Amino acid sequence: MKIDILSLFPEMFEGFLKTSIIKRAIDGEVVDVKVHDFREFADNKHKKVDDYPYGGGQGMVLMCQPIIDCLKTLVTPDSLVILMSPQGQTLKQQMSQKLSQYQHLIFICGHYEGFDERIRDYVDIELSIGDYVLTGGELASMVVCDSVIRLLEGAIREASHADDSFSDGLLEYPQYTRPYEYDGNVVPEVLMSGHHENIRKWRLKQSILKTYHKRPDLLEERQMSEEELEILHEIQKNN
User: Which among 24, 39, 53, 113 is annotated as catalytic?
Assistant: First the structure.
């Protein structure tokens, strides 16, 4: 996969691209990530990228010319252009899985008060990471990139993310590691049993239990199997 990011602050990505799974994926040529300073494409003497909004108002608005000219040097028939915006659809695991199937993603990171509306004519989708406003789109684009890159073949083992929260519509079951006992709390015996079927059943029940208490809306959206429905009814009966 190839990822291009348009930003006024490329330096914000230095740590992100040189750390942990993202660095390994880049070094292993699983993904190629480049950050482009669209200020370099400004066609005015002072490399100005924003101006006051027509009609008045607070703050400065990003001009369309630098962003669109930068975008035109990158976009191909295989590209998906993503505008990071609090007005966009909220990122969910299913969207990350969908994005991981593309060959080329281009992220546009805004700053200041907003965008010239005409920039949206060159965008395929708008994405948000939540109902709040950040100083710019850089942090949000890192969140999306992280959620996508880890799903790419060769980034991490597929089994490592197969049971992630939201991957199958449920929250992830509890995880434990050494020591067996800490501060009086012990690892559930079923996990020490070596009985794979019992462990599977326990994990499924714990996933449904967590989802029931923390995100019941996910259960309402889920097409549940007979086994899952039996577990859910038992949980409802005991709560």
Answer: 113
